[in-house]
Amino acid sequence: MNWSELLERLNTSALWEPALGTALLGLMAGTTGALAVVRRQSLMGDAVAHAALPGVAVAFLLGARAPLALVLGGAAAGWLAMQTVRLLTHRSRVSFDTALAGVLAVFFGAGLVLFTYIQRNVLGATLTPLERYLFGQAAFLRHDDLLLIGSFTTATLVIMMALWKPWATISFDPAFAASIGLPVRRLEWTLTTLQVLAVVIGLKAVGVVLMTALLIAPGVAARQWSHRLGFVVLGAGVFGAGAGLIGTLAAHLASFQFAKGRSVPTGPIIVLTATAWVVLSLLVGPARGWLWSKGWRRSRLPRPDPNAPTQP
Amino acid sequence: MSSIIELTLVLALVAAACALPGVFLVLRRAAMTSDAIGHVLLFGIVVAYFLTRDLESPWLLVGAAAAGLLAVILVETLAQSQQMRSDAALGLVFSALFAAGVLLVSVSVKNVHLDVDSVLLGQPELATEPRWSISGVQLPPVVIIAGVLVLNGLLVILFFKELKLSTFDPELAAVLGFHPAAVHYGLMTMVAITAVASFDAVGPVLVVGFFVVPAAAAYVLTNRLAVMVLAAMLVGIVGAVGGTLMAEVGNTTTAGAVAATLGLLFAVVFVTAPERGLIAQWRQRRRQIQNFQELMLAVHLLQHEGLPEEADESRWRDLHTHLSWQPLQVAAVVRRAEQRGLVVRRGEYLHLTDQGRTLARSVLHGDPPSLSAG
What we know:
The structure holds two protein chains of two kinds. Helices cover 76% and strands 0% of the residues of chain A. Chain A is mainly alpha-helical. Chain A has one domain: ABC transporter involved in vitamin B12 uptake, BtuC (Orthogonal Bundle), CATH 1.10.3470.10. In chain A, 50% of the residues are buried. By secondary structure, chain B is mainly alpha-helical. Chain B has helices spanning 2-27, 31-52, 59-80, 86-108, 116-121, 141-158, 160-168, 170-175, 180-221, 225-250, 254-272, 278-304, 310-313, 319-323, 327-339, 354-364, 368-371, and strands spanning 132-134, 137-139, 343-346, 349-352. The model of chain B is unreliable at 370-374 (pLDDT under 50). The interface between A and B is large, with 62 and 60 residues.
């Protein structure tokens, strides 16, 4: 394959619209996901992604067909799931991860029931792109999806910049945040809402399970490069966007290796790109990377002497 | 019709088999691990298929269980490297392995049995068909899942002490030589094997429901581990049977209906559990408020006892002005305090009984035990 052939393969709007879409999605998921990773809520995205299913189905049953309306339905269900998790952890002895797993399975099950109902009772429903939300098909991102993703990404970034200081404070020390008079509950509420929206918008591109990776991987990777929250979130956005872009391009080019009718799915390639980036960051990331931590330990920071007297 | 009975039986067995390790997952705060294991099974099945090229080989099941265990080991290694928290490690590992599984399936295996749809959702409707064979003998799923149930039951009974101690006090278990790490991996192996056996019937997402939801309901219900295990199995079986019936009546997906039924059962337990349910919590809070009001009434009377203004302060019709309560509220508090023997009504005045006086004094002198009396 020569260069002109390569350029020809890349020169199609059927490639660049999905590529731009997944890059924007990676940016949004990376930045909001990094905050979830810092707040030990990495798996929240997984639960929201599963729990959005009944919401999408209900929105569909109510007559919604536009991407925005379906997204709002999914977001409502995802948000309800998060409030349920909150209620369960506050009002019973059930722990966060148990509540998350239980809510995930039950909401998903309810969603399956609704989906089956739609497929059996709503005329022509099998022709609609409803099931795409389950597995994700980034290659089908079109102009109106792009508009939706673009505007939500912009809104997310603006809100994040506006609320940066208080969000950083509640992420590290909620008790301190409350003591200086920050409205902790309302701030958490806003952050959760934004994260839920990011997950639900991402569902169409990468599907339920793989959305989890897009939320967590950029954050974990960026954490290996800096100790400052601002840089971690910024880096996560860049890494997420990179994973989306590179993943879509790679899937597109790899599809040429296979016979017609078989294409390489974009979602998994994006996830594997993000994962590869995490592995690389774990090895060489300057802040916490394996390579540097060994070097640090040997040269600059002497191991603390266990027998040394401690300060009173 | 008999196929429905067999399907119900399979799902009830799945429920019972999942509840056994599920209880320990919930108690160890490792519930999401079952979600991760459920998703990576696909990867193991695909890799095993590449090695055997046989869709009926039991090695596919072994491969799936091995993938589940591999995921657990990877998560532990990543979390212990201190580079990331365990929840982030879990999310990373299972989504990466799942992506690899989906990718392998879609580029190389175009086969109905490894269809991504059925792999994600499970097909209980097919759960009664035999799929796996060992040297030509076909094994119906009901036999496999019953075998797993017996295995799980034996393991939990045999290692009950070890599981209990390492779950509630891992440090003590380590000191006493019970090897909590070995127990942990043993439990995870049990989860992986159970997930593999249940996988065909309910799919990876709903198997999480069977692991977690009945155990969570049982956890709200009881403090005793053995009771919790039995209660979880019972809730799971009721959910499985109820869900299958509802799916039959409503002509919908069995897996989804079972998960929704389990959710309903949990909701009922969450609201009505005798000690820790929402209603019990609400009643307890109301009792505390009432108790506090009765104590305040007694303290008020004691403060003015034997003083010139006593007549004015203890006229029960005017009490609401002194205590800033609503008149109706005062009437209710006085009635309850009378029933408790703290005060007596003489004409239009209230007087402390000896018991009320002792109680009010102990409150004023900051004696905590008497505060919780009643």
